[in-house]
Amino acid sequence: MLSRSILRQVAPRRLLAARPTAAAHVMVPMRYAPAMQVPRFYSFAAPAEGEAAEKKTTGEEVKEAEAQLEKETKITEELEKVLKELEQKKQEAKDYKDKFTRAVADFRNLQDRTERDKKSAKDFAIQKFAKDLIESVDNLERALQAVPQEALAAPEQNKELVDFYNGLKMTEDILLNTLKKHGMEKVNPLGEVFDPNVHEATFQVPMPDKEPNTVFHVQQTGFLLNGRTIRAAKVGVVASPQN
């Protein structure tokens, strides 16, 4: 009887300990239930004040970065502007240098041309006067040619005529020497090769015993003034065989 009463008291307790504890209304005695661990939850989020401070710091950094970027952009634009102006100034300097070089060259050419013009004006200042004297020289030459050679061969018999001839010849020589001092020369191209720059061919005659294109007769002498022909000599030229 005693053993049955003990079993009756112990059995319900074992059954209660063996039941699951899922139901919230079931009370499990602590001495029979196993120890239960209550889960703990941890949050990694920053506190509200720290998060606001971090956001504030990030916003300031963004603003500073934007300001720095804007500043650098302005500096870049100004630098590009300065470089562009520098290129323009370089091009202008190059243009001015080219203009200066051309101006110097033009000025030197003008100086050279002016010197040539001055020299030409000096050399040919008496050209008109010299042309006027040519006729006098021609008249003296004609007068000398009019004296017969036979009379000159007998000076004792024709003393007055010979003296007159010598006086004319002396006058001609003095006049020609004076003209020569001023650059004027008499041209007598007898026997020379024909030159169209200083000679004027009035006729041509074939002559087998003479070189073609040479002057065999001087009809009128020519004159040069400082190398420039002021009157071409009128001559007769030996014709070429085919002519």
UniProtKB/TrEMBL annotation:
Broad class of where this protein is predominantly found: mitochondrion
Subcellular location: Mitochondrion matrix
Recorded coiled-coil stretches: 55-106
Entry superkingdom: Eukaryota
Recorded GO CC terms: PAM complex, Tim23 associated import motor
Gene3D superfamilies: 3.90.20.20, Head domain of nucleotide exchange factor GrpE
SUPFAM superfamilies assigned to the protein according to its UniProt record, in alphabetical order: Coiled-coil domain of nucleotide exchange factor GrpE (SSF58014), Head domain of nucleotide exchange factor GrpE (SSF51064)
One Pfam family in the UniProt entry: GrpE
Name of this protein: GrpE protein homolog
UniProt organism field: Sphaerosporella brunnea
